[in-house]
Amino acid sequence: MIRINFFLFGLLLTLVQLNGQSEFQQFNDLLSKGDTAGQLKFLEKWESSKRNDPDLYVAYFNYYYKKSMKEIIRIEKSYPGKNKQAIQIVDTLTKEPEGYLYSDIYLIPEVIKKGLDYIDIGIKNFPSRLDMRFGKVYVLGQMNDYDSFTKEIINTIDYSDIIKNNWLWKDGQPLMDAKKFMLGTIQNYQNQIYNAGNDSLLKYMGSIAREVIKFYPDNIENLSNLAVVYLIQNNNKDALELLLRAEKINPQDCIVLNNIAQTYFRLGDKSNSIKYLNLVLKYGNADEKQSAKEKIDKIQKLQIN
Q1: Are residues 139 and 260 in the same domain?
Q2: Among the three residues 181, 197, 216, which one is the final residue of a domain in this structure?
């Protein structure tokens, strides 16, 4: 997830570098030199002469994003989630874990708000620019503002239906295979929510999944996402219904087959659980087959006992 998000933000930055117009190159030079005062002066001049240039808003967004960044060191009692690389602190006497140390990026709220205001203008005036929308989502995720993060993703899904997935990217160029790219990136944002390891965020994961399914009912990833939300909430019957829908779309998807097996086991139907684990043995890779075999052995021992 971190790799995908960094890639997306990197595209926003390299937009300045790759375009042949002089404004972009001049701003990029100032950005690379860390000349904050020079960057702002240049942006204001650019704005006065080419206010309708969509890349002006991308440049402003990057300027305020970079200006707002502060790296801080945090110590938490509990594990901060898969999205963070943390070092465990251990008591030297008891050898018991005392907490977790990790580096975090803090965005100064009043500064990043200015960047978000500019990208909002860009999205309003150029609503088909997917790079602007995903750049905003990335920053909202860094801010842990999952309410706004989710709303922006849902707005993107809704607008994609209006324009029939005909998205634009940098330089206003049509985005190739836009539907696949959009849904793939949204899936990475779903992973970001899940990897935060906070059950209170599951409502956001569920909201995004429902919106994707509304327009793309055959999207296996979000059928599975919503099923996982239900499983965590112990809503096993609704989870099973979604997973069986996903199986009909792709009967060889081993993530789906494993989750169906787990759901049947939770419902006390060990026979069907073994049936689906055997399908994993049939279609899975070496690791999936080994895991399925171990699960079947455990279930069979439970049946004997």
Answers
A1: no
A2: 216
Handedness of CA 93, 96, 99, 101 (dihedral sign): positive
Which regions of the chain does DSSP assign to beta strands (E)? 69-76, 86-90, 97-107
Look at 74-78, 106-110, 189-193, 261-265 and tell me which has the smallest mean pLDDT. Answer: 74-78
Lowest mean pLDDT among 85-89, 247-251, 287-291: 85-89
Does the reported pTM lie above 0.85?
no
Rounded CA-CA distance 94/46 in Å is 61
**Would you tell me how many other CB atoms lie within 10 Å of the CB of residue 241?**
13
Task: Give pLDDT, residue 120.
Answer: 98
CB 289 within 8 A of CB 280: yes
Please check whether residue 31 is in contact with residue 66, taking contact to mean a CB–CB distance below 8 angstroms: yes
Q: pLDDT of 161-172, one tens digit each?
A: 999 999 999 878
Any idea what the Cα angle at residue 268 is, between residues 266 and 272, rounded to 5°? 95
| Radius of gyration, CA atoms only, the chain | 23
Amino acid type, 149: F
Q: Is residue 96 part of a domain?
A: no
Residues 150/133, Cβ–Cβ less than 8 Å: no
Q: Which long-range CB contacts under 8 A does 80-89 form with residues at least 24 apart?
A: 80/197, 81/195, 81/196, 81/197, 81/198, 82/195, 82/196, 82/197, 83/1, 83/2, 83/192, 83/195, 83/196
- What SS3 class is residue 129? strand
Q: Which of 80-84, 93-97, 266-270 has the lowest mean pLDDT?
A: 80-84
